[in-house]
Write a structure and sequence with these properties.
By secondary structure, the protein is mostly helical. The protein has nine helices and seven strands. Strand 6 and strand 7 form a beta hairpin. It is globular and about 50 Å long.
């Protein structure tokens, strides 16, 4: 969610929304997909998820927005059809538990990976030619298993928002767009670029709240 915080805050200011942001770095939405966490972190993430789900049930928000680095789950679920099916079933159960509160659910697809190329360091070294820092779309825009699972659900109040067009064309994903660096490190969007996406994100979200 950290990637989209500036965009969402800008959008909330424009629309008069009251928003609650609650995230924990490195914690996946589902426990399945947390194989790289140590035991202490995994327990903390599980407790955090339980707290968030309890708050959703109590506060009944109009809109729930999910954003994470779901691509980290690919290797864990790709090797077994049974594990993949279990993951999809857990996604469905979770989303249904949110929708039953009356909320609309939006999953924002993963942003492109930087691949140690689309970084501020690369832009600094190649100031005169920022295209050097672009990455091939096929390598940078990985599969997002959480978004794909939600996209396959027959739940009218749940949908996936894909903002990839704001990062990539048909061939490449870029490190500098509109004069703004896209990332501030190897994993996160820059504050300025995220905020610049408020209008585009709003075009996707606002129709769900009218």
């Amino acid at each position: 969610m950290k990637n989209w915080k500036p965009a969402l805050l800008e959008l909330a200011k424009r629309e008069g929304w009251i928003i609650t942001m609650d995230s924990k770095g490195g914690c996946p939405v589902l426990e399945l997909g947390a194989a790289d966490l140590d035991i202490t972190k995994a327990v903390h993430c599980r407790e955090k998820s339980a707290t968030n789900n309890r708050l959703i049930a109590e506060e009944e928000p109009d809109l729930i927005i999910v954003a994470q680095e779901a691509a980290k789950t690919i290797d864990e679920i790709a090797g077994s059809d049974a594990v993949h099916q279990k993951y999809n079933a857990e996604v469905e159960s979770l989303v249904e538990s949110w929708v039953v509160t009356g909320a609309q659910v939006v999953v924002i697809r993963d942003v492109p990976q930087t691949l140690s190329t689309a970084t501020p360091e690369c832009l600094e070294i190649n100031e005169s030619n920022p295209l050097v820092c672009a990455s091939d779309r096929a390598d940078a825009l990985l599969s997002d298993p959480f978004a794909e699972a939600v996209d396959g659900l027959e739940i009218g109040d749940a949908r996936v928002v894909d903002m990839s067009e704001y990062f990539c064309d048909d061939d490449q994903c870029y490190a500098l767009i509109g004069g703004l660096p896209v990332n501030f490190d190897e994993r996160h969007l820059s504050r300025s670029y995220s905020a610049s996406l408020a209008t585009g994100l709003g075009e996707q979200l606002l129709p769900m709240l009218r």
